[in-house]
Design brief:
Length: 528
Amino acid sequence: MALAAADTYVVVLALTDMMAGVGIGIDALQRATPIVSGFLLGYIAVLPLIGRLADLASHQRVLLGCLAVFVAGSAVTALAVELPVLVAGRVVQGVGGGGLVPATLAIVAQLWDRDRRGTPLGVVGAVQELGSVLGPVLGAAVLAVADWRAIFWLNAVLGVLLAAAVVATGGGMPSRPRPLPVAVSLLAAAATWLALAAPEALVTSVSLGVPFVPFGDSTSRLATPVGVVALVLVAAAVALWVHGAWPVLRRADLLGALLLGGALGSIVLTFAAADPEKEVVGPLGLALLPVAAVLAGLYLVHHRRAGQPLVPRGVVVGRTRWALVVSLCVGVALVAVIVDVPLLARLVHTESETVAAFVLVRFLVAVPVGALLGGWSLRRLGDGLVSGTGLALAAVGLVVMSTWGRGSLGEWTATPVLALVGLGIGLALAPVNNAALADSPEDAHGTASALVVVARMVGMVVGLALLTAIGLHQYYAAVASLPDQTDAQALLDAAVVQVEWVFRGAALAAALGAVASVALGLGRNPRG
C-alpha cells in the first residue's frame, strides 16, 4: 500500500527530468500531462475488476499478480526514451499499484471480524498516507544522487522484494507456476529490455545491429525487428496468463469491467488531462463525457441482466452507499490541500518548488496520525461519530485557510491549522472502509473496498478540476476589477484569492462529508 501510494506522488519533483528524458522541453509542459494522467487511468479504471478478482481468487495470488504488473510497468518506465512508451509504463504501473489496495483491505476483512477491524484499517490507512508523504521525499533523495530512471528501478526492486515477502508470509506460492507462461514471460522481458535499452555495443555492431535498425523513417525503438519480436512475445505472455486465469476472469464479468472501466477512464482523461489555467475539462472532454455517460448507462443495464455482475448485487446498499459519498468528499478536500498549499507557498512564501512541497509536510504527517487514531477509536465511538468529527474539524481548518493571505504561512498558527485539517481527514479513512466492509457480503469485500477507493480518486480528479475552475473565475474577476492590471502586488493578491476560493470549496466538501457521515452510524447490515 505504501509503495503504491508513494508512486502516485513520486513524479512530483522528477517530472521535468522525465520530460527531458523523452525529448520534451519545459516549454511543452502540456504534453507531459499523460505521464500523470496515465498512472491515474491505470489506477482507477481497473480497480473494480481487480477488486472482484480479489473476491474470487486467493488474496495472495492477486497481490503477487499486481506486484508483477507493477514491476513490469516500473521497468518499462525506467527504460523509456519516448513519450508513448513512458506513458504506457505509467499506465501499467497504475494498474499494478491500484490493484494492491482492494486486495489488502480484503485481507483485513478476512483476518479480523467487523468489531475488531478498526485498528487494522487505521494502520492500513496510516501506511498508505505515509507512502504519500514519502513519495516526494523518496523522489528528491534519489534525484540527489542519480537520475530519474533510478526512481523506477528502485520501484522494481522493491516490488520484487515485496513479492518475496508475500510468498514467505503466505506459506509459499499459491500454486505451482505453469512452465510455458513463465518461459514466454522471461523471453518477453529479455526482448523488451533489448528493444528499449538498445545496448550501444549491439546497436553499433555491423553484424548484430541489424535487428535494431528502425523500419522506414521511424525513430521508435519498438519499430524495429527486435521491437516487433518483443511486442509479439509480450502479447503471447499476456494471452497465456489470461488463458490460465480464464475460469476466474469469466466469473468476474469482463463485459461489465470493460463498460465500467471505460466510463471511469473517460472521466479520468476528461478532468486529469485538462489545463487548469484554461479549461475545466481536457481537450477531448466534450467527446469523453458523453462516452462516459453512455458506458455507465450500459453498465447499469448489464448489471440488472447479468447473472454474476462485476459489482455483485447487495454491495452498494445500506451504509456502503454513504461510505462512497463520504469517500468522494474526502478526495475533494484532500486534493485541494495537496495541490493548493504548495501553490500558495510558491506565491507568497518561496520561489522554490521543493521548499513549497515541504510546506505540505505539516499536513501530510498529520493524516496518518489521524488514520491511526480513527481506527483505534472505532470500537468506542463508532463509524459515524469518528468520521463526522474528523471531517467537521477539517472543514473548520479549511475555513481558516480560506482567509490566509501573504504572510500566513510564515506565522506559527499555520502549523496547527494544517495539522488539524490533516488529522481530520485521517480520522475519516478507517470509518469509511469499516462501514463498507461491514455492510457488504463476505464474498464481496474486495469489490466494496475497490469502490471506496474509486470514489475517493474520482473525488480527487474531478474535485481538483472543478475547484480550480471556480478559483480561476474569481481570479479573473479580481484582475478585471484592478485599476492597474500591471501592478505586480495586486496581481499576486488576485492569485491568492484563487487559492482562497479553492479552500472554501474544499471546506464545503468536508462539511458535506461530515453530514453524510451521520448515516455511517445509523445501523449495520447483519450480513457483514
